[in-house]
Fold this protein.
Amino acid sequence: MNPLLQDFDTAPFSKIQEKDYKPAIKEAISIAKKEIDAIISDTTKPNFENTTVALDKVGSKLNRITSIFFNLNAAETNEKIQTIAKEISPWLSEFRNDITLNETLFNRVKKVYNQLDFLDLTPEQKMLLDKQYKSFSRNGANLNEESKLKLRKIDAELSKLSLQFGENVLAETNDFEMHVTKESDLTGLPESAKEGAKMLAKQRNKEGWVITLDYPSYVPFMTYADNRELRKTLSIAFGKKGFQKNEFNNENIVLQITRLRHDRANLLGYKTHAHFVLEERMAETPETVFKFLNDILEKAKPAAEQEFLNLENYAKELDGIDRLEKWDSAYYSEKLKKKLFSLDQELLKPYFKLENVVKGVFEITNKLFNLNFEEIHTIDKYHGEVKTYAVSDIKGNFISYLYADFHPRPGKRNGAWMTSYKSQQILDGVNERPQVSIVCNFTKPTETKPSLLTFNEVTTLFHEFGHALHGMLANTTYGSLSGTSVSWDFVELPSQILENWCYEKEALELFAKHYETGETIPMEYVKKIKESANFHEGMQTLRQLSFGLLDMAWHAGQSLELITSVKEFEKKAFINTKLYPDVSENCMSTSFSHIFQGGYSSGYYSYKWAEVLDA
């Protein structure tokens, strides 16, 4: 029996084999089509219950199965899973279009929608109906048959290209390693980083040390290693993911994705992809986003340029560096920060043992939201490193399951994210609680030390936990309105808000305790963390603005067919935010997974937007 087609609550990871996915997804699509047929064949007059609510329930089995599959494709993938992903993505694209382009179904939805002002609906019900109608009208329901066929082809191609983009970035990340055989080349590197590099080498049957492009390996080397040439080697390797002349090159994929998105928007009656996306966001128009980003740029750029000049002068004074390059940034920033604030990141790390930080997040959440977290061993995991928790409220009522996956592996993409295996909804009077996951790439424990986080990793954990809370505390009637199903430029707000606690004395005292002595973090360190919170804020802001402007350049422009060089296009987009000399071997766009693999196309500005809402 296929475990994915049985009734299950939590994902039956240990029972699933790769061969189960395709037949399960085929069958789930078939079930969902029958659910659609039942709505269409209903001879009673279309109303909110028999059309709107019924449609919201369609595909629940399919959603459960695909959430398991695609979450594993991001966190624990392999060649078989990647091959299956390429095969099933067109099926899913076709199925989505079978719904939104179904004229009979749309007519039922439209009949209910046209009664919106006369129906006695709650605000939540009105939102569901409005959202449902727009999901049809904005995605081709009003097109003629020829245009619908074009749309289907575009959507199928986009789903394949997006997957290929992500696979290429992961392959480039995994393929690179810097093998160091002389300890003198590691001068400046903290002992914890050296130990991690030695452990990596040992795992790969090599003598010496291995540095990779995974963040826990890459970041310490770029921050502390005195060897400028090796920093350069590592920096260039990181920046050329998807930009090398090999099978993993993403240049053509970037051009294809942006052109297809533009063609799709035009087909649907929109000027650009950004116009299409932003119509349903808080910002509403590309003009608003450009004004928002450029207003911040006007204020941040002078500060960033002054910070850069100060950093360049400091590097010159310290080591005779005439021109600051990208591979110098983290290194000299850390040295200058230490000089100005007497703050050493390595001094902080012993106070941020991963397990203590996790307990601290739980305790803060308990104080804020009366939530309790209990580690459990009764539900399946997809990897031995994953931790599982049952979350309950102050009365003992079950709130959610939480999966936490903290460390890098070859089958996991870089970065950190929150996702879910099951959305909250009220079904037949029962409040079905969510199953949420946070996935990170934090420093691994070594043979002599536990996982000790940098302060940046601490803020990342709080950030992703903010997203997790948004999902776990969901309490809506309808699944499609649940949790993080909000405007994309609002979705970063809960995560930004929770980050603030990392800087507060009351919060730090709960979890920042030395992993060996149990000593609470000294107040002088807390003071320095707060004092240095805005160190190089101008440069950091400029960096984020550059990503937002690059995103908008790709998606709000018109003559995309004239773009032949991804690199040259990118250089023009960066013209007003550039601080460092260009590196010819590097290209940001070819590994910009947020916009070419994730859901942030025409939406990267939302990080800054959320900071403003949070301010």
